[in-house]
Design goal:
elongated; three-stranded mixed β-sheet; 3 strands; 2 helices; 30s Ribosomal Protein S19, Chain A
């Protein structure tokens, strides 16, 4: 559920204090655990190390990210893939297509010689 617009965006005070100490466009990574903090326009151009529970993921802030939360750009789980019979069939078809392409290229090289 989104935060009420009359309350304004939530930005952690410690992040604001760290931003004031750095110069604009600095290459330093600002480490933070404040995933719930919204991205403010003052943060554009900085790189934040957002903690995902295991490590700090570097997130470079751009104009498009303003209004979103820092945690949205640092995933906490690793997506492997969807499984099942249908996925295996798709992978086998793509492997066959790749093999056919490689065979066609090799045949074309033999005919040139």
């Amino acid at each position: 559920m989104s935060r009420s617009t009359k309350k304004g965006p939530y930005v952690d005070e410690r992040l604001v204090a760290k931003l004031k100490n750095l110069k604009s466009g600095s290459k330093d990574i600002i480490k933070t655990w404040a995933r719930r903090s919204q991205i403010a326009p003052e943060m554009i151009g900085f790189t934040f190390g957002v903690h995902n529970g295991k490590e700090f993921i570097p997130v470079y802030i751009t104009e498009d990210m303003v209004g979103h939360y820092l945690g949205e750009f640092s995933l906490t789980t690793k997506f492997s893939r969807h499984g099942g019979k249908m996925q295996r069939d798709l992978e086998s078809k793509s492997a066959e297509n790749e093999a056919a392409k490689v065979g066609a290229v090799k045949a074309a090289e033999k005919t040139k010689k």
